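User: Show me an example of a complex going from sequences to structure tokens.

Assistant: Sure. Here are the input components:
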Amino acid sequence: QTVVTQEPSFSVSPGGTVTLTCGLSSGSVSTSYYPSWYQQTPGQAPRTLIYRTYTRSSGVPDRFSGSILGNKAALTVTGAQAEDESDYYCALYMGSGIWVFGGGTKLTVL
Amino acid sequence: QVQLVESGGGVVQPGGSLRLSCAASGFTFPSYNMHWVRQAPGKGLEWVAFMRSDGSSEYNADSVKGRFTISRDNSENTLYLQMNRLRADDTAVYYCAKDGGGGNCFFDYWGQGALVTVSS
């Protein structure tokens, strides 16, 4: 069974830069998996940040960027702000109409 | 603006059934694939089911295969999730999500969710 891996937690200072990653338990993540990223604060629905690896969703600040780093998809927050403290989830399209989410990363800004 | 409004959540006993609805507005519903995604209390997101825009095919996560059925009524702009043989581990907030289209394979708009609690 395919497992999508994310760091459980990460911490960044205000104004700092942090990179969250999204990997596979077996194999490498490539653009062929159409990596996407979602931000969620407690009690709220997810918000779409990045799709198709690199593309920012409408209205998303340009301090959020997506990429492939090595064998993983990555979400970089450059110049982190207090309001970026959230849970972040990646999703990969596995083909054949199947998607898998990572376990999520809790980002703390302090 | 795009709106997705889920309804039909509630408390159900193990082994019971429930049907969720998702009323869509603000976009051409028959033109877009749609998804259900769930989140158990204190846990992460889990993709549940996908249906093509014309209803021609559906796909489900292994965890719900044979128990849950996704469907849609394009004349009513509504997506459904029929949940049978419910188990305690199906307890979650269920989100309806619009596919981003264009072959980009992502979820671009989300509803606010419907809570389903499976408990005796």
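The lines above are the inputs; the final block is the predicted structure for all two components together. The first strand of chain B starts at residue 3 and ends at 7.
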